[in-house]
Amino acid sequence: MIMLQGKGVSKGVANGPLYFFQRPDTTISDTPAADIEAEKARIAAAQKKAIDQLNALADKAREDTGDETAILFETHAMFVEDEDYVDCMMNTLTERGCLAEKAVELAGEEFAAMLAAMDDPYMQGRAADIKDVTRRILNNLMGIAEGGIDSEVPVILAADDLAPSETLQLDKSKILGFITQGGSSNSHTAILARTMGIPAICGLGEALKADQSGREIYIDGETGQVAIDPDKITLSSFQTKMEKQREMKELMETMKGQGDVTMDGREMMVYCNIGSPADVSAVLSNDGQGIGLFRSEFLYLASSDYPTEEEQFQAYKEVAAAMGGKRVVIRTLDIGADKQVDYFQLHKEENPALGVRAIRICLNRPEVFRTQLRALYRASAYGKVAIMFPMITSVWEVKECKRACQKVMAELDREGVPYRQDTEIGVMIETPASVLVAEELAKEVDFFSVGTNDLTQYTLACDRQANDLGKFFDPHHPAVLRALKLAADAAHKAGIWIGICGELGADLTLLETFLAIGIDELSVSPSAVLPLRAKIRKSIAKTCTLEKLEC
Asked: Which residues on neighbouring strands pair with residue 494, listed in sequence order?
């Protein structure tokens, strides 16, 4: 038996085979092919495998979510066999005398560019389909496992750490839990684990080794303990915890359909944080009242180029429609700092957390901002969409954002494109500056949402990504809680609502403090909704105090 100790960042106990994440070599060589006919045969085999994969995905989607998603996979399967697309691949192969991978890559780029240049929005949208189909065929040619996990059974996924773009591409149906050598409680791996409701442990260091792959492993996301090939006593301890976990899950199921109301009638909205449309099923299955944070940057992280208006519109529309009229707060792109995207060509900064990121990029690149705003407003016609701007520090920034919105709405009016004119606009409170000018900001917007991860980072001068700051990174610090109170008071003075969309919102030990402060909404990982609801329903708002704001 091997026992490892890390930091638990997502609660829960799980067991399964250990699988170490392997980063594939995606370099495509431009060397000449030795046998063109053999390369054609390789493409044909990769196409057939792609069709089989897509048909299997369509069958599963139809069973799980209905026809709409299934049709998407079936459409992709048709693109694989499209005559013009196939001819383009084969002609490129013959003319350039290159390897199959290069021919498929070039053909995909040519075909996607041709569709994106068309005037018809529907055909523009098909450019994204071609990119996805091309990626699938390339993965088959290069032996890259679909979803990054080459296993027939679900696994405990291990890695040094995972970049945002890597977490987006994982086959989540095959993941029972995460363990990483590095990372922190605010890493994207930890956030994904909490969204999925599975355990995660970070900071295991070099004691976690790739040659341990395949061994039976148990992990406890609360204590940070990892047991590889546990002995009988350790195994019994983990199994007891797993049984209690099952019992608690059954108890939480009774919370579904209940109101998020305290015993004395104070209502608190409990929303969910998501990172992609695929996460909506977790929101619905956990009975979230809405979505308080939709991280739109997933579209940028998962793409090799700026996502088009149509690509973004389809993603936002899918979420808005699926939520059936419940509020969906979509944050405009929050690229920069720990979320780097090559094609943005951002300059290397000594301290990117304090650099050109989030709303600063949008205001510096108005065309990128305009594309996203057009997609957001178009999607508002299909549900209750709210738009939220991150990293706001000044009133002038909000006014510039609102001017950009007005221009987009005027464009859509001229074009006769439907959208909701009453779409809410909000800002994130995540810097000391935004707290100190909160009264002025509140006059300009419909809501506040506090990003407690960054607010803690900037208030305490602690890097949120660092794993060795320990007690110095303290979201319970009176300065952070007082900042929350200042922002809440400013919001209510202006007659707007205020929520928390940072990880702190799920902290049950602070719920009564949030009630005393006057927080109206908590947006948390889907798995945190029902435990939070149970705590709310046992609380008495009028007896809650502000004692934790004292030093």
From this structure: none
